[in-house]
Each structure stands twice: as structure tokens, then as C-alpha cells.
Amino acid sequence: MRIDVVSLFPDFVRQSAAIGVVGRAQQRELLQVETWNPRDFATDNYRTVDGRPFGGGPGMVMLIDPLRAALAAIREAAPEPVHVIYLSPQGARLTQKKVEALAGMPRIALICGRYEGVDERLIEHEVDEELSIGDYVLSGGELGAAVIIDAVGRLQEGALNDAQSAQQDSFSDGLLDCPHYTRPVHHDVWGGVPEVLLSGDHAAIRRWRRKQSLGRTWLRRPDLLTQRALDDESRALLDEFRREYTR
Ligand SMILES: CN(C)c1ccccc1CNc1ccc(C(N)=O)cn1
Prior knowledge:
Layout: E1 2-6, H1 10-17, H2 20-27, E2 32-36, E3 50-51, E4 61-62, H3 64-77, E5 83-93, H4 96-103, E6 107-112, H5 120-126, E7 129-132, H6 142-153, H7 162-172, H8 202-220, H9 222-226, H10 232-246
The site of 6-{[2-(dimethylamino)benzyl]amino}pyridine-3-carboxamide has 15 residues, from strand 5.
């Protein structure tokens, strides 16, 4: 998969994508991340990328033409069609479901706004999808781009080893993860570890973990539970958790 990022701070995006699982995915050519600076596509001597807002008011707006030229260069750089995403607080909330959809695409382009954002006509004519990583205001879209690169990059076939993909699965079935423990078995300040995890009874351990994931999701993110039907076994485990919880 190829991801092209349009940003006034290309180093930030490139360096964050060079680290860890995503960096390794790039080395293995499972993922390609390219950055494009709109300033390199500005045609005036001052390499201007922003303009004063029509209608007045504070701040600046990113100009259409440098962005449009960068997108044209992106399209020209490889044959596959490009799905163009604009990161902004006005976008649809990014979810794992959306990440999985993006991870299956041959190419995406991520446009990172700075200042007060970009001219609406660029969004109207060039952007396929506006996405937000959460309901908060950042100085630019680059952190959103880094989030998408990471979430999509780790889903590329071969990016994760077995342990990591198991961890991915525990989140991906729409539930929160269960608690995890490691040595010491008995911590002199914070005590012990749930007995079942020391029992060696792998069926009981699987059951306990599933019950904890269901229970935690019910306690902390009940909204996630309404989004997915529970099979009979999960329903029974959750009922058991709830009975024990209120006791
Ligand atoms: C300057 N701002 C507010 C702005 C306005 C419009 C577009 C881009 C930006 C850049 N900032 C962003 C970008 C994304 C998110 C998000 N929640 O995904 C938060 N902030």
C-alpha cells in the first residue's frame, strides 16, 4: 500500500512513519509513505502557501493551487487511483472499521491542514473523505496523518508478528482488551495475580479473558456493545460478570 502525505512539515510525518512496526513495514516494502510539501509547488518567489480569508477574521487559509499541484504530482507518481483524505475537526470520526477499509486500498493521500485549514473549493473538488481523529483541535493535520499511517500500516499483511496480531485481534472484534499480568506472581506492594491465569487451564483462561473484555466494555464503553450483536456464549459471560459486579 502506498500513502502520500501533503504537509508543510514533511519531516514530522516521515520520521514518525520510520519508527517501529510501521518503519519495518516500509523496510519490507509492505507499505510506502511519501511526503509532499505544498511549498515546493508554490509558484511565487516567496513560495506562498497561505492567504488572508475572504470575509475577514483572524488567521490564514491554505491556498488552493500549491495543494492542487501537489495532488496532481501525487496522482502522476503511480498508476493506481488515489483516495484523497483531508484531516480536520469537521471530519467523520475515525474508527477501526474505517481503518480496515482504508487498509485495503492500493493508495490513499492524506492532506494535512495548517493555519485555519484549506480553501473549501479544494475540499469540494479534490477531497473524497474528511476524517477526524477525535473531538479536539490540533495545530495541524499531521498527527491525524500519523495516526492513520500507523493504524493502516500495522494491518498490512506481514507487518505484525503472531503476538502483535493476537493483540490486534483482541481489539478488532469491537471489545476492549482484558487485563494483562506478568512477573512477579506476588508483588510485595500490590499483591497477586488472578488465580485462573496461573492454573494452566487454557480453556478457563480464554473464558476469563473473554469475560473480562466483555465486562470492561460494558463498564467503560457501553456504546461499543450496542454496535455489535453478542453470541449466546458472550451474552452468558457478560450476564455472569454483571451478576458478580453488582453483588
Ligand atoms: C487548525 N485546525 C483546527 C484545522 C482546521 C481545519 C483543518 C485542519 C486543521 C488542523 N488541525 C486539526 C486537524 C485535524 C484534527 C482532528 N481532530 O482530526 C484536529 N485539528
